[in-house]
UniProtKB/TrEMBL annotation:
Domain Methyltransferase: 59-149
Example of a GO MF term: 3-demethylubiquinol 3-O-methyltransferase activity
Superkingdom of the source species: Bacteria
Keyword Methyltransferase belongs to the record: yes
UniProt keyword Cell inner membrane present: no
Alphabetical keyword list: Methyltransferase, Transferase
Any Gene Ontology biological process: methylation
Name of the protein: Class I SAM-dependent methyltransferase
Top EC class, one word: transferase
Annotated EC: 2.1.1.222, 2.1.1.64
Amino acid sequence: MEEIDYLAVNRASWDERVPIHVASDFYDVAAFQGGTDTIREFELAEVGDVTGRDLVHLQCHFGLDTLSWARKGARVTGLDFSETAVTKARELAEGAGIGARFVAADVYDAAEALGETYDIVYTGIGALVWLPDLTRWARTVASLLRPGGFLYLAEFHPFAAMLDDETGTTVTYDYFDQGPHVWKFPHTYTGSEVLENDTTVQFQHGIGEVVSAVAAAGLRVEFLREHDHTLFRRFGTLRPDGPRFRLPEGSPAVPLMYSLRAAASIR
C-alpha cells in the first residue's frame, strides 16, 4: 500500500466535519445549550461521582461530552487534534458559562501539550480507530494520571466491526486485520452533506490489544464489560431501545460496545 499521512488526512476530514456536526440533529447542540448533557447512563454508573475531580477528555471533538462532565461537577480539560473543533468547544463553553480548558494537539503529544496530571482520563466513543499505536497511547494515558487516578474508556466493540452492515449476522471482515484501512465516504455520519475531504485512515484494535496495552503501561484493569447495545443503527436489523439500539428480541446477542476502567498505582 502506498504510504499515507494518516494524521493529515484525518485532520482535514475532521476539520471539515465540525460545522456539519455542530448543525446536525445527531449532536443536537441546541438541546445541550438548553441544559441537557450527553453522557450515557452506563458511563455515569461506571465512572461514578466526578464532583471536584480533574478530568481530561482525549479526542474530545468539539467538546459536548467534555462540557457535560463539567456539568456533573468535574474540572475539565479537552484535547483534540482539530483546531477547528477546539475553537468551537471554547465558544460553546463560553456560551454555556462553563469553565473549561481546551487544547489543540495530537493525542500522542498530550502530556507535553497539557503539562498537567489528572484524576480521570476519559476517552470518548469512536476514538481508538484513529490511532495506529495503542502501546504509545496507553503510555500517554498513564503519564497523565495521578496516583490512584483512572482511565475510563467506552468504545464500539471490534467484534461488531467484523459483521456485515445490513444484518449484523454474517462475519464479513477480518478481526485481526489492523490496517491501516483507507475509507472513502462522501458523507459524515450525521447527514447528507457532501464532504470534500472524504477520505479517512482507520485502524482496527482487538480487545486483547487494548487490554494488553493498558496493562503494559502499568495500569490495573478494574473491569472490562461488554454490552449488547450500541448508540446508532450500525446494522439495518438493529431496533431502537430508548437512546440505544439492539438486535431484535429473539436474535442471538453479540457484543456491540465495551467499557474498560483501569487505575494508576497509588505510589
